[in-house]
Amino acid sequence: MDPIIIIGTGLAGYSVAREFRKHDTETPVILITRDDGASYYKPDISEAHAKDKTPADLVQKTAEEMAEMLDATVRTHEQVEAIDREAHQVKLASDTLTYSKLVLAWGADPIVLNLAGDATDRIHKVNNLMDYRVFRDHLAAGSHVAILGAGLIGCEFANDLIQHGYKVSVADPAGWPLAQLVPEAAGDAVKTALAHAGVDWHLGHAATGVHHGGDDRYHVYLDDESHIDADVVLSAVGLKAGTELAEAAGLDVDRGIVVDRTLVTSDPDIYALGDCAEVAGHWRPYVGPLMQCARTLGKTLAAGADAEPGQVKYPTLPIIIKTHVCPVIVYPPVDKHGEWQIERDGTAVEGRFVDGDGQLRGFVLTDEATNKRRDYIKEAPALLD
Amino acid sequence: MKKWQCIVCGFEYDEAEGMPDEGIEPGTKWEDIPDDWTCPDCGAPKDDFEMMEVD
Asked: Tell me, what's the pLDDT at B55?
């Protein structure tokens, strides 16, 4: 029997392989990755200093160890060039592999800002462990890091760096941190706590260019003509699902590769999950939804063609933002029809998003208010029931 | 004996069953699982768990 081929060895690829092996120990499995295939827990990257871990410490298992554990073949440093749906084949640079079922788990790519200047090639991005190794290599004791983007990753990095001896400036065109996820009061709490810890905020201002500033330093220019003088520039302006290869193969794509609640794409033998997939209209590049998909898909792949495929469920899985100086737990409302009701005491913010009938649809809790998370999780509706 | 579910990843832990494959004996309380233990599903370290009791 032709193998199941999984493209990607991040949390999605390895998790679906692991779940599959719980139900099927016979069918061959091949995983393909463009990196070294090391297994690591990605959310640890943005709090590596707090956990006193180097990039090498973050590796939990090597590709060889994963291959042995999963009884699978892991093809490292391989770039997939095309998917031939008719022939059921994946084309690599120097090989062609035939699949019975194909799983797309190649993740998302960092959005790259279109900036002016002669140093844009020096801007770091961190979306995997390889990127993080490079970033850490460029950090010296006391380095001043300019972070572009005050979203989840930008804020977690700001927190991790400012608490471990670095200088940090953060620029974002939005008026408050985490603006795409939380209402202003919660963002302001994070801003206040991180400012108190030493973060230099440039909110309401987009970066326009990155220039060499002499002595290995960089000038990050903002739209008010001011600039940040930094040793290292990190871009963390968001992710975009990897859809190009899928689109080239003729699969339906939107914000991500379009799949239904059985995780199947518009081709019945190709599935997708994780940061590259849009599941029943929802693109959720977070650990919780990803793990739910891995569990559902692992069973489906093992069950065979005649079985009814399982439907993924997304219970109330909030997003936890590990800004230790002011932790945040947010469950963003899916439907924007409603309003935020905010109670604030210093940096403790309790926000309820309620619809016209008074039903809780989303919530945000910061700092000490996060102690109430259990009550909120019980009250808030599941995303996919 | 309690049952727990992680609100980050949906992982379930039943104290009565333990996780014999992971070397966690049946009857082990969540709080007694060693701090250096990591999730067999997603690799999360124990201190990243957000356990809620489930019925």
From this structure: 66
CB contact under 8 Å between B8 and A320, yes or no, is yes
Cα separation, A158 vs A46, whole angstroms? 9
- The CATH architecture that domain A327-379 belongs to is 2-Layer Sandwich (3.30)
**Is B50 known to sit in a ligand binding site?**
no
**In this complex, which of A44, A291, A373 lies closest to B41 when CB atoms are compared?**
A291
Q: How many residues does chain B have?
A: 55
Asked if A293 is an interface residue toward chain B (Cβ–Cβ < 8 A), one would say no
Contact B54/A at CB under 8 A: no
Q: Is the pTM of this model over 0.90?
A: yes
User: How is chain A split into domains, by residue range?
Assistant: 4-109+239-303, 112-235, 327-379
* Mean pLDDT, rounded, for A365-370: 97
Superfamily holding A4-109+239-303: FAD/NAD(P)-binding domain (3.50.50.60)
Q: Chain B 6-35, CB below 8 Å of chain A: which residues?
A: 7-11
Total beta-carbon pairs less than 8 A apart between chain A and chain B: 52
Query: pLDDT for A246-280, tens place per residue?
Result: 999 999 999 999 999 999 999 999 999 999 999 99
Residue in A15, A320, A373 nearest the CB of B42: A15
Question: Tell me: the pLDDT tens digits for A209-228?
Answer: 999 998 889 999 999 999 99
Give A65-120 pLDDT, tens digit per residue: 999 999 999 999 999 999 999 999 999 998 999 999 999 999 999 999 999 999 99
Q: How far is CA A148 from CA A205, A243, A316, A317, B30, in A?
A: 10, 24, 30, 28, 40
CATH code for the domain defined by A112-235: 3.50.50.60
Structure tokens at B55: 């019925």
